[in-house]
Write a structure and sequence with these properties.
Strand order of the largest sheet: 1-7-6-5-2-3-4
Keywords: Hydrolase, Manganese, Metal-binding
Family: Belongs to the damage-control phosphatase family. Sugar phosphate phosphatase III subfamily.
CATH architecture of the largest domain: 3-Layer(aba) Sandwich
Bound molecules: 6-O-phosphono-beta-D-fructofuranose
Cofactor: Mn(2+)
InterPro entries: ARMT-1-like_metal-bd_sf (IPR036075), ARMT1 (IPR039763), ARMT1-like_metal-bd (IPR002791)
Structural class: alpha/beta
Order of helices and strands: HHHHHHHHHEHEHEHHEHEHHEHHE
Number of helices: 18
Number of strands: 7
Catalytic activity: beta-D-fructose 6-phosphate = dihydroxyacetone + D-glyceraldehyde 3-phosphate; beta-D-fructose 1-phosphate + H2O = D-fructose + phosphate
Number of domains: 2
Oligomer: single chain
Strand content: 5-15%
Length: about 400
């Protein structure tokens, strides 16, 4: 555990705040979009109406007795929150439970015909088929001829900035993608990142865990980074942690990994070579997928179960992607931004790297000058606008 006491966890109860807007505006918008994307029958429509009303004015409700994960959610705090306003429980918890209840409403865990149908799939596929995705893949053609250091940087930054591709974020902030990214990182531990993965004979025994975030235009560069690290002999095995079920609109599941690999192998040029190498890596077991239930838990990573802790302890490095995973990694609190990243991640069982664009209030590990410059230029907007990014590493 960290020696630094955490400030109180963030709630969604302050009108005008970012968390409040997510509960009050983003969630109803997501319900609307999912409803429009599928020809659901009257039962699903009724349940979606009920969820929308519950989000606006109601309270957290229990899962049905038949829910396969009911006991797990009870372990994750459900009983303490049932009957309370969505706005008064930890924001991390209420957001996560919203996605669980949305899956309930569309019959994802039921026994009917909608069982296992990802309600976000149309949005994910549209993104995968977008011209921007093809343009990003075409850019791989020139990369092979570049010097090694340049390729390292391009693939690391490709994975980092891929985190801007977040469909949930764009649903509530239509201008998000148009706002220009600020290339200078607010924290940059890339040198430490590379120092933890030196190429060489012993690297073959080294495992890298990559805790994925979004599918599509984030997952593809994550896979390309994994392929690069394996090809460079910087690690011998990559374990890709994905979500066990659809979550936060675009979070990657196993099905999304398959779609991303098929997109790569079906693309022209160098992208297909990378895709084939990744396909082979899956067949040989040097790239494996893990869909642990805790990856979609409404809790900070301090609560991770023993089996996951043991896995991360054995990894040479765990790379944690994205904003939500960052909130879980450091704790969903408004830390003073200069709180050392190493302190708040001291509990983590092995070396850990965060690759994240800034899309919520949580931030640690800034130096005082950087924070002051950001505040002077943007007020509080830099924290949530998705235009800034960081690479933070704790050895
Ligand atoms: O896909 P990411 O990077 O985890 O972002 C998830 C988004 O949802 C949030 O968790 C807020 O709902 C933000 O942190 C971010 O806008």
């Amino acid at each position: 555990m960290s020696d630094t006491p955490a400030p109180p966890v963030i709630l969604g109860d302050e009108p005008g705040s970012f968390p409040h807007s997510v509960l009050a505006e983003r969630h109803p918008a997501i319900i609307r979009q999912v409803r429009e994307a599928f020809p659901y029958g009257p039962d699903v429509h009724r349940r979606l109406d009920a969820l929308r009303e519950s989000c606006a004015e109601g309270v957290v409700e229990a899962l049905p007795d038949t829910a396969p994960d009911r006991d797990r959610w009870r372990d994750w705090g459900l009983d303490a929150y049932v009957g309370r306003s969505w706005f008064d429980v930890p924001w991390l918890w209420s957001e996560s439970y919203f996605y669980r209840q949305l899956l309930e409403a569309v019959g994802y865990f039921g026994t009917g015909p909608w069982r296992g149908i990802d309600p976000f799939r149309p949005f994910k596929l549209a993104e995968l088929d977008a011209p921007e995705t093809d343009a990003e893949l075409a850019a791989l053609d020139g990369l092979g001829a570049r010097p090694a250091g340049e390729r390292d940087r391009a693939l690391l930054h490709g994975s980092l900035w891929g985190n801007r591709a977040d469909l949930g974020f764009r649903l509530s902030d239509a201008q998000a993608q148009e706002r220009a990214a600020v290339p200078a990182l607010v924290a940059d531990d890339s040198d430490t990142f590379w120092s933890l993965l030196p190429a060489g004979d012993t690297a073959r025994t080294r495992t890298l865990c990559l805790v994925a975030d979004n599918s599509g235009r984030e997952l593809i560069p994550d896979l390309l980074l994994a392929a690069h690290l394996l090809a460079q002999g910087r690690c011998g095995r990559v374990v890709l942690h994905v979500k066990p079920y659809p979550y936060y609109v675009s979070d990657a599941t196993t099905a999304d990994v398959v779609d991303a690999l098929r997109k790569l192998t079906g693309a022209p040029g160098a992208a297909a070579d990378h895709g084939r190498r990744l396909w082979t890596a899956m067949a040989e077991g040097t790239l494996t997928i893990r869909a642990h239930p805790f990856s979609a838990a409404p809790l900070p990573c301090t609560a991770m179960p023993a089996d996951l802790r043991a896995e991360f302890a054995q990894a040479a490095l765990t790379v944690v992607k994205g904003d939500l995973n960052y909130r879980r990694l450091v704790g969903d609190s408004r830390w003073p931004p200069t709180t050392p990243f190493a302190d708040v991640t001291a509990y983590f069982p092995g070396p850990v790297a965060a690759l994240r664009t800034l899309k919520s209030d949580v931030i640690t590990g800034l130096d005082a000058g950087t924070e002051a410059a950001l505040v002077a230029a943007e007020g509080l907007r830099w924290r949530t606008g998705g235009t800034h990014a960081l690479i933070q590493v704790r050895e």
